[in-house]
Amino acid sequence: MRKVFIILIGTCMALSASAQQRYLGGDLSMLPSYEEAGTVYRDSAGKKVDPLTFLRQQGWNAVRVRLFVDPQYAKKEHQGEGVCQDLDYVIRLSRHVKKADLALMLDFHYSDTWADPAKQFMPKRWKDAAPETLSDSVYAYTRHCLQQMIAAGCTPDMIQVGNEITNGMMWEVGRVNAAGSEGFDVLSRLLRSGVRACRELCPKAKLIIHTEKAGDWAVTKNFYEQMRSCQVDYDIIGLSYYPMWHERLPVLHNTLDSLAVLFPDKEVMIVETAAYYSHERDIWSKGPDQYSEFYPITTEGQRLFTKELMSELRKHKHVTGVFWWFPEENESGRQVTNYWLNRGLFDNHTGRAKPALYELKW
C-alpha cells in the first residue's frame, strides 16, 4: 500500500506541473496604429490574414498592452517610435484582445513615455507633486484606469506594476540603487499603492514586477530580495531577456534555476524578448552586424534564437509565459513609425510572417 501511495502522489505532482497554465503572446501595443494605416499582414505563404486570428492559430493565448499616463507630452521622437497608448487607445485595443478570446496583460509604465533602465521619467501631471503624496497619486491613477477598463468589458488577466524597474521608477523620487538597498523604501511604497488598487479592482488578476537584468544574477537577486524585504505583494517575476543585451542562454538558464530556488512561491515570465533579423533603416545601429555575437543578424539568426529560447524555457516548470516585444512591426504599407527596428515577426517589406514566428511555441 505504501508503494502505491507514493506513486500516486508523484503522479499528482507531475500532473499539477504539466497542467499549469502557460502563456504565449506578444506586446501588440502598436497593432491599432498599423491597422488604421491599412497595413496588410500575411502568413509565410503570402496569404492575407487577420493578425489576432492568425496568432491564435499559431498557439498564442495572450497579448500584452502598454499604458502611458499622458503620451501627448512625450517627446516627438518618442511619439514617432510608437508612444501613443493612452487609456482610450488601450481600452479599444483591449476590447479586441478580449473579443479574440485572448488573455490580457496590462503594462502600467507610470510615465508619459518609454520607461526602461535608462529612463523612468516622472509623468508631467505629477512633476510638482510632493514626494509624500505620490503613493496616493499612483493608487488613484491605477484605480481609475482599471475602473474604466472593467466598465468597458476588458478586465486584465495579468497586470504589470511598472516597466523594467530595476533602477526604480518615477525618477528622481522613485530611483533606487540596483546593487544595494538605497531608495527601495520609497519605490516599495509606490509599488504597494499600485498593487493595492489592482488587488481591489482585479482580485483575480496575477500581478507582475518586471525587471530587465536576466543576464545579471546578482542584481536580479538583490532586487527581488528587496521586494520581499519591503513586503511588496505580487505573483510573477517578470523578466526582459534579449540576447544582444542579456548574455547567452546558459546565463538565462542559471538565472531561472536560481529564481526557482530563492523564490519558489513565484512564477516567472519572460515578458519581453526579441531578436534582430536586420538593421535596415535602424538609426540606432552602428553597422549591419551589431549585436551578432550570439546569433547572426539575419532571418535565420532570428529563427535559431527563437527555437533555442523556447527549448530552454520548456526546461523550467516555473516559467509560465513568454511575450515577444513589438512582433506586429510591419512597414510594408503606409509608414507608421519613423524608423525600423527589424525585431518583429512580420517582414517590413512584404508583411509576411517570419520563420521565427513559427518557432515561438510551447
| Structural classification | alpha/beta
Give the helix tally. Answer: 11
Basic shape: globular
CATH class: Alpha Beta
Number of domains: 1
Instruction: Characterize the main sheet.
Output: 8 strands, parallel, barrel
What is the helix/strand order? HEHEEHEHHEHEHEHEHEHEH
Strand order of the largest sheet: 1-4-5-6-7-8-9-10
Rounded Rg: 20 Å
According to CATH, the homologous superfamily is Glycosidases
**Average pLDDT over all residues:** 94
Overall number of strands: 10
Helical content stands at 25-40%
Describe how the helices and strands are arranged:
Layout: H1 2-19, E1 23-27, H2 31-36, E2 41-42, E3 48-49, H3 51-57, E4 62-67, H4 76-79, H5 87-99, E5 103-108, H6 134-151, E6 158-161, H7 184-201, E7 206-211, H8 217-229, E8 236-240, H9 249-262, E9 267-273, H10 299-313, E10 319-325, H11 355-359
Helix pairs in contact: 6-7
